[in-house]
Sequence to fold (436 residues):
Amino acid sequence: MPGGIDPHTHLAFEFMGTETMDDFFTGQAAALAGGTTMHIDFVIPVDGSLTAGFEAYEKKSKKACMDFGFHMAITKWDEVVSKEMEIMVQEKGINSFKFFMAYKGALMINDDLLLEGFKKCKSLGALAMVHAENGDAVYEGQKRMIELGITGPEGHALSRPAVLEGEATARAIRLASFINTPLYVVHVMSIDAMEEIAKARISGQKVIGEPVVSGLVLNDSWLWDSDFLTAARFVMSPPIRAAGHDKALQAALSTGVLQLVGTDHCAFNSKQKALGIDDFRKIPNGVNGIEERMHLVWDTMVESGQISVTDYVRITSTDCARIFNIYPRKGAILAGSDADIIILNPNSSFEISAKSHHSRSDTNVFEGRRGKGKVEVTIAGGRIVWQNDELKVVPGSGKYIKLPPYNYLFSGIDKAEANYLASLKAPVKRTIISKA
Ligand code: URP
Ligand code: ZN
Ligand code: ZN
Fold:
């Protein structure tokens, strides 16, 4: 099948006072060992500057051993940012922008910026993405937990319940509808958020929902473990939910309510997680998944009989290439496509452990998991890079893939806009004719 494409990763990401364990070499090597041959990472602006952010990520990605593209986060708004967005789309190969509705005081933006950003995305043919949690309410929830003396990792999940993800998802969807632009909801972790996406899609709105492997196969039971590091390992945002959400997200994926699977790979080691030993608000948010995604999705979705092999290829590769507008160069095995190909043996088993994984992190949220469907060969750009459990990767061999604007979701947008404008009546000319 075509190599996996991971739409959501954070390599060499400086976040919450530290930096992720995996950089563009180690993270990509891990990806290749797990059958993923391309990923799209999030460029984070430097002091709000997109240009400085892009340059920083150009440097970080020099040692890439696998093809990659970029999304960009928008963390503030002014004329400079607005202009920089044009340059990013027209010259730098970025066709998607992520808006954080959470992380108050850090990356979070409010609705006014969200609206400005959505308008700009629409005018550029770029896809607006949201991290959908109500950041003000999360802040309130965190204060409440601290007041109650709940300072451990479970406080993370308790302070930001699914209702806050549902609220923000609904709000982002309605604002995108008001602006008439497509929307991509990253890391859908709850039934609450998923149902909002389902409703919008039924009504014909162009909304894409991306679950991540951690949300699909894990539940929050570990968060209550009495060992701090065992629990802290699972801290990510939105949080891994109670059992039941995982199965519902799987069902949504199998019925097309959700479209493609990412990882949100953002790996921290035990020492970094321990920064939050006295206060869950200081535990760096993020879990691994870049190496495990293809295996776990096969085992959970195909081996279990929930989806066909064809759908597996679609949700792990082809739809990602379509949405980010690089199909059929990526996401297909066709004459003219890049030779990114994997062989997955459905009869061979895998077992996940930090002892054998390729990430530099010393823990793995999927520790001990076994299943069927192992990637035995990975071919990236025509070269065999993974075979007989051996990696042969070369730093600097990965290419930056420019992502062009106006994906298929934009077809019909102009027409909808024209219909809307035509539906408006000309302004009524008024004078005061009634007697007081
Ligand atoms: O906890 C997470 N998800 N860390 C990465 C940053 C983000 O919000 O995607
Ligand atoms: Zn996020
Ligand atoms: Zn993320």
Notes: The longest strand covers residues 341-351.
